[in-house]
Automatic annotation (TrEMBL):
<dbReference type="Pfam" id="PF01883">
    <property type="entry name" value="FeS_assembly_P"/>
</dbReference>
<dbReference type="InterPro" id="IPR052339">
    <property type="entry name" value="Fe-S_Maturation_MIP18"/>
</dbReference>
<protein>
    <submittedName>
        <fullName>Metal-sulfur cluster assembly factor</fullName>
    </submittedName>
</protein>
<dbReference type="InterPro" id="IPR002744">
    <property type="entry name" value="MIP18-like"/>
</dbReference>
<feature type="domain" description="MIP18 family-like">
    <location>
        <begin position="4"/>
        <end position="77"/>
    </location>
</feature>
<dbReference type="InterPro" id="IPR034904">
    <property type="entry name" value="FSCA_dom_sf"/>
</dbReference>
């Protein structure tokens, strides 16, 4: 398993509390980069710009990755473009909402 696959697997522990679907299957994770050997840079979005759980979700991503022994630095970049839509969800995520 590559480090990127491990990161994605670990991020599945971070749930959107309103939808009760993890951030990976929701399609909120846009990109994962490794600028240094022990650092990860995550570009992500939320389902809506006014999401009241903004801090909870982004903090969950940060803490989840900081727990990994391969990672010592985490940066989360929250973006609004491209905007999130249900089309970004994985097949597993779509099943969870009945599609």
């Amino acid at each position: 398993m590559t480090l990127k696959e491990k990161v994605l697997s670990n991020l599945k522990r971070v749930m959107d509390p309103e939808l009760n679907i993890n951030v990976v299957d929701l399609g909120l994770i846009y990109d994962i980069e490794f600028p240094e050997e022990d650092a990860v840079y995550v570009t992500m979005t939320l389902t809506t710009p006014g999401c009241p759980l903004h801090d909870s979700i982004t903090s969950g991503v940060r803490y989840c990755l900081e727990e990994m022994e391969e990672i010592s630095k985490v940066e989360v970049n929250l973006v609004w473009e491209p905007a999130w839509s249900p089309e970004k969800m994985t097949p597993d995520g779509l099943k969870q909402i009945g599609r």
